[in-house]
Amino acid sequence: MATDQLMILIGLGAVIIFFVVLFTFVPVMLWISAWAAGVKLGIWQLVGMRLRRVIPHRVVNPLIKAVKAGLDLNTNKLEGHYLAGGNVDRVVNALIAAQRANIELSFERAAAIDLAGRDVLEAVQMSVNPKVIETPFIAGVAMDGIEVKAKARITVRANIDRLVGGAGEDTVIARVGEGIVSTIGSSESHKKVLENPDLISQTVLKKGLDSGTAFEILSIDIADIDIGKNIGAGLQTDQAEADKKIAQAKAEERRAMAVAQEQEMKARVEEMRAKVVEAEAEVPLAMSEALRSGNLGVMDYMNFNNVKADTDMRDSIGKATDDGEEGDKTKRPTDR
After folding, report:
1. Does residue 123 sit in the same domain as residue 158?
2. Co-location of 44 and 104 in the same domain
3. CB under 8 Å to 256, separation ≥6 — which residues?
4. What does residue 294 show for φ and ψ, rounded to 5 degrees?
5. Using CA atoms, how far apart are residues 172 and 154, in angstroms rounded to an integer?
6. Any coiled-coil ranges, and where (predicted)?
């Protein structure tokens, strides 16, 4: 192979490699699309995006949509929002939707809403088409003790001015639930709530529950209402059961105290008997001392023994009579 031919092949390969690298690093087709759509964009701007680690089509394609929709946006704003971590395509779509719906929304506010983590496109769509939020069954107890369950449908519209920093759907549902419970609880009878369910929605709406939220409550409708348990009767039954258990515990306490007192009295009786026996044991000693000292004569001592013997005899006769009467009572009539 001649040297000239070899140089031509090397030059041709270098040209091919150059174009491959160029088309890989520089999105030429995207640049052509931008120019075809009327977006004045330099090729070096796309190269700059590559160097700033910005994916060009994430910025250029939304810019093309914005320009075709008549929005006044440029690559610096969109690129800055992309570098901040925002969703450029969603913000541009939201701006186009707001423009079509004649809703005042600037790029800065849309970008702030997007960076706050809210779906700005959904918010714009919700401003045009209000959203219906359905609550679960919320139970309240009327003043007559009957439980009433109500399910509400809340129609809300996004408030774009309060999307940044405003409370979400969970707060709206919680506030409406609180209003339903308080309204049912302030009713004298559950029948009044059943007769006029609109009383709940009217009372809740008067409280201005959308204050500080990202939504504007348009209406609250009671979708379903039902009767629950008789909470008042249940509470009274539980109270009666508790009172009964308390009374039983107190009665058991008194019985235990009476048994303990009985045992204490028996112990005291035995103690007194012991003292009597102890006192009787001292009588012979006292009599012997009286005899020695001359305070008691022999005749006095004999008379004392006679009296004692007479008393023992009477006790024996009395015991024998008592035993005989008890034996007659236990004997059967046929044995008599």
Report:
1. no
2. yes
3. none
4. 85, 5
5. 9
6. none
Question: Same domain for 102 and 183?
Answer: no
Contact 91, 73 (CB under 8 A): no
Number of domains in the chain: 2
**Are residues 220 and 205 in contact, defined by beta-carbon separation less than 8 angstroms?**
yes
The alpha-helical segments, DSSP class H, found in the chain are 3-25, 28-36, 43-51, 56-69, 75-83, 88-100, 107-115, 120-128, 169-185, 190-195, 198-206, 231-293, 298-330
| pLDDT above 90 for 260 | yes
User: Based on the domain organization, do 98 and 113 belong to the same domain?
Assistant: yes
Residues 55, 80, single domain; the answer is yes
What residue numbers bound the domain in which 119 lies?
19-128
Give the pLDDT score at 336.
45
Which structure tokens are listed for 21?
Answer: 């690298």
Q: What is the SS3 assignment for 92?
A: helix
Task: Please indicate, yes or no, whether residues 168 and 101 belong to a single structural domain of this protein.
Answer: no
Question: In angstroms, rounded to a whole number, what is the distance separating the alpha carbons of residues 80 and 75?
Answer: 8
End-to-end CA distance of the chain: 161
Query: pLDDT tens digit string along 59-109?
Result: 889 999 998 888 888 888 898 999 999 999 999 999 999 998 888 888 998
- Answer yes or no: are the C-beta atoms of 155 and 217 closer than 8 Å: yes
Q: Report phi then psi at 116, rounded to 5.
A: -75, -5
Q: What is the pTM of this model?
A: 0.57
3-state secondary structure of 215: strand
